[in-house]
């Protein structure tokens, strides 16, 4: 094989390439293509052009660590998040990351624990035995309340905040497979929904910024960003608000704050909401795992609220979270763009090529996991996820690993433990997946609540 050869490509259709198969079943298309072509292949998708898919941990390591300077962030995220942490590069990323790091330090995250548990109990106090609820809806509402309270210093009313929750959820509308592969000029229903959501979300966050700027500051992340804006100055000429962060300086504008808040709001609540949804679904479907889970809660907590000091003893609960993130990684694909010509597995990938890391595919690959389609938390009993290297990347990997990883893991463990002490959640429908920007379930995942008491 010549070192300059193009990666192989599965058979496609004239004009539309692989668009139809991808839009119909994204995960199935990637899995079948990898089986046919190997761990590096090209997909021809309308709206994207040629996309180079990688389906092996070695490729992930190249892109995320070894040769990370050769792969830039995809413009896919810029549409939703502007110039937030997910979308920027180089020194701008380093500056933004340094502003946020203190709020995601181990000590600061532990300080959020009591509020995470309190908001969980506030929500479950509204539940009744035998009631049927949307598991996805409850998990999403709860994690949004947690992120707003801990990072933004704003407690949402459990009956309020619906517009904010709807707008956050509808950001996913841009990322349906059908919308992604169509030219951006095509006004699909999902894109119109996305535009409405983006407008609503950004307007509400601007109001929150203005309220915080005019009122009392706290010790939360939003207050720190507003204070940084005050200190660093800048004015866009519109009502005295600072200008966008586009001049290469460290000036933090209102637009930059909004971009950051949108990024943190979405990434900070959706990852955990999905992990909780899939963990509780699997617990409701597997009696043996559920029995071990409830047994651990009864032994370790005995009906008391969980604290960060309990987490090390909640090993079964932690393994359930780890396994949910393996089988259902919220970020099913990590998109990058080659910034220069590179060679991967001997294939030439030209500069400008969209390069997608197929996380969902690797997490379910039998080369790296025994019985990969089964939900088996016990697989992590002897060795944790770090033992899998780049074959386990629910939060990315390398220098740009998700800043909120520890936050999400602690939140998921505490919420699982708090709810699991009082309730068993019984799924009412089979689970199907609907990949968008994240690994969404196809429906609301209805569950019926069954009260339980520690034995």
* General shape: globular
* Ends distance: 64 Å
Q: Might you state the CATH topology name? A: Cytochrome p450
What is the correct CATH architecture? Orthogonal Bundle
User: What value does the Rg take, in angstroms?
Assistant: 22 Å
Report the order of strands and helices. Answer: HHEEHEHHHHEHHHHHHHHEEEEHHEEEE
Number of helices: 17
Report strand %. 5-15%
Name of the top-level CATH class? Mainly Alpha
Unreliable segments of 5+ consecutive residues: 234-249
- The tally of structural domains comes to 1
Quote the average pLDDT: 90
Please, what is the oligomeric state? Answer: single chain
CATH superfamily: Cytochrome P450
- What structural category do the secondary elements indicate? alpha+beta
Widest β-sheet, arrangement of strands: 1-2-8-5-3
Tell how many strands the DSSP assignment holds.
12
Helix % is 40-55%
Largest sheet: 5 strands, mixed
Q: How would you portray this structure in words?
A:
- There is one protein chain.
- With 455 residues, this protein is α+β, with helices and mostly antiparallel strands.
- The protein is globular, with a radius of gyration of 22 Å.
- It has one domain (19-451): Orthogonal Bundle (Cytochrome p450).
- It has helices at 19-24, 26-37, 57-66, 76-81, 90-101, 106-111, 113-124, 135-152, 162-170, 177-181, 189-214, 221-232, 254-285, 287-300, 315-327, 359-363, 405-422, and strands at 40-45, 49-54, 71-73, 132-134, 333-338, 342-344, 347-349, 354-358, 423-427, 433-435, 439-441, 446-451.
- Helix content is 47%, strand content 11%.
């Amino acid at each position: 094989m010549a070192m300059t050869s193009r990666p192989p490509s599965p058979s496609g259709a004239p004009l539309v390439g692989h668009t139809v198969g991808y839009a119909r079943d994204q995960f199935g298309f990637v899995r079948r293509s990898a089986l046919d072509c190997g761990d590096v292949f090209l997909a021809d998708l309308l709206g994207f052009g040629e996309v180079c898919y990688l389906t092996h941990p070695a490729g992930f390591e190249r892109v995320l660590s070894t040769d990370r300077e050769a792969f830039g962030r995809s413009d896919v995220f810029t549409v939703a998040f502007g110039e937030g942490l997910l979308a920027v590069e180089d020194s701008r990323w380093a500056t933004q990351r340094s502003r946020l790091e203190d709020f995601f330090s181990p000590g600061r995250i532990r300080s959020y624990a009591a509020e995470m548990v309190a908001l969980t109990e506030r929500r479950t106090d509204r539940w009744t035995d035998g009631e049927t609820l949307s598991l996805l809806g409850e998990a999403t509402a709860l994690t949004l309340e947690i992120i707003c309270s801990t990072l933004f210093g704003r407690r949402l009313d459990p009956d309020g905040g619906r517009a904010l929750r709807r707008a956050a959820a509808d950001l996913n509308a841009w990322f349906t497979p059908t919308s992604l592969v169509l030219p951006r000029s095509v006004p699909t229903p999902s894109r119109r929904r996305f535009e409405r959501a983006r407008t609503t979300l950004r307007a509400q966050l601007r109001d929150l910024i203005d309220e915080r700027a005019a009122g009392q500051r706290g010790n939360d992340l939003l207050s720190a960003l507003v204070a940084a804006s005050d200190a660093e100055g800048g004015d866009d000429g519109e009502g005295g608000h600072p200008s966008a962060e586009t001049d290469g300086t460290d000036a933090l504008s209102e637009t930059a704050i909004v971009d950051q808040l949108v990024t943190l709001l979405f990434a900070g609540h959706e990852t955990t909401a999905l992990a909780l949804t899939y963990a509780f679904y699997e617990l409701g479907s597997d009696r043996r795992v559920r029995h071990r889970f409830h047994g651990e809660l009864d032994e370790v907590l005995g009906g008391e609220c969980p604290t960060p000091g309990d987490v090390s003893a909640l090993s079964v609960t932690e393994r359930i979270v780890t396994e949910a993130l393996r089988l259902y990684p919220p970020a099913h694909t990590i998109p990058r763009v080659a910034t220069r010509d590179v060679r991967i597995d001997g294939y030439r990938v030209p500069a400008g090529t969209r390069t997608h890391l197929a996380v969902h595919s690797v997490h379910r690959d039998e080369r790296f996991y025994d019985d990969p389609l089964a939900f088996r938390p016990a697989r992590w009993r002897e060795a944790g996820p770090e033992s899998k290297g780049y074959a386990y990347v629910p939060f990315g990997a390398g220098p740009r690993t998700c800043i909120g990883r520890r936050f999400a893991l602690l939140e998921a463990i505490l919420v699982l433990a708090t709810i699991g002490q009082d309730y068993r959640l019984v799924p009412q429908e089979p689970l199907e997946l609907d990949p968008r920007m994240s690994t969404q379930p196809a429906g609301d995942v209805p569950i019926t609540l069954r009260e339980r008491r520690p034995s």
